[in-house]
Amino acid sequence: MPPPKGPDEVGADLMGPADVVEYVMSSMAAAASERQFDIGAKVLLSFAVSRKDDDDKPEDFVGQLQPGHFAEPALTSYLAAEPRYETLTMLDEWKCMGVPETSDMSRKAVQKLLVRRDGKNWEDLFIK
Question: Model-level pTM greater than 0.85?
Answer without folding.
Answer: no
